[in-house]
Amino acid sequence: MNITINQVLQAYIDPLTASEYAALERSLLAEGCRDALVLWNDVLIDGHNRYAICRQHGIDFKTIQNTSFTSLDDVMLWMIDNHLARRSVSDFQRGVLALRKKEIVAARSPAPVSAQDAPDGENAPKPPMSTREEVAKAARLSSNQISQIEKIQKAASPELVQAVRSGTISINAAATVASLPPEEQVAAVAGGKKLLRQAAKEIREQRAATRTPREPKVHVSQDTPETGNEPWAENAAQAPSETERLRGEIASLKQKVAQLQAENVELNQRIATLIDAS
């Protein structure tokens, strides 16, 4: 039987850990391959690990055809939904799969219709999976977690992505560490779980220290007559011009940039020290 492995489809499957692969191998050797492999024509779409083990040990297996697909996109969506329903899939991988589903659905959906072109001036319905909330619901995650996974996909080094895939670092911490330059991400991953957590903690502390506090709002009672002698009126009269205010903001931002650069140098030194000590 000629069975084809599609690399794009196989990439949807997180590789098993060594212990998980060994357990599956023992089960197949003891009980045989009870579940049939699923094919689309000659393309394997479910059962990649079982197929590899069966071929290695000469274990017999059965196949079934799924003839409901008309395109490779149909197969991809079926595989994504199939994996999203499994408990063994990690939160990070569910988020990645849901975002991939969003891309496929968006590519298959017709171009959006503007309110002017829609009948009766009504807004055309939005395509499915078009919002972060819908993606989060499909992945059984929060919208914030989906946002963090998007940051990881855009900015994380391959080493950091592998760390979050393996559970060495949480999604939240990985999204924070992904803000570092790639070489610093690699150094943090090389330092192990403890250094990754420390790096994420220090980045959060830096952000909190440089966050501008909100100014309290001035409340004026409607029952108090305005005489022009109130303290708030005097403050308003002495308020700086728009140009002076902008200049002050620019000076403040320059000071913050200098502070962040200094703290970044200190963070790099700490990371290097932790790596040497590990």
Number of helices: 13
Mean pLDDT value: 81
- Total beta strands: 3
Identify the quaternary structure here: single chain
Apparent shape = flat
| Proportion in β-strands | under 5%
Give the C-alpha Rg. 28 Å
Helix/sheet category: mainly alpha
Give the SSE order as H and E letters. Answer: HHEEHEHHHHHHHHHH
Biggest sheet record: 3 strands, mixed
- End-to-end CA span: 51 Å
Task: Assign a percent range to the helix content.
Answer: 55-70%
The strands making up the biggest β-sheet line up spatially as 2-1-3
Low-confidence stretches: none
Explain what you see:
The longest helix has 36 residues, at 242-277. The protein has a three-stranded mixed sheet. The protein is flat and about 75 Å long. The protein is mainly α. Helix 6 (132-139) crosses helix 7 and helix 10 packs parallel to helix 13. The chain is built from 13 helices and three strands; from the N terminus they run H-H-E-E-H-E-H-H-H-H-H-H-H-H-H-H. The model has no long low-confidence stretch (mean pLDDT 81). Helix content is 59%, strand content 4%. Strand 1 and strand 2 form a beta hairpin.
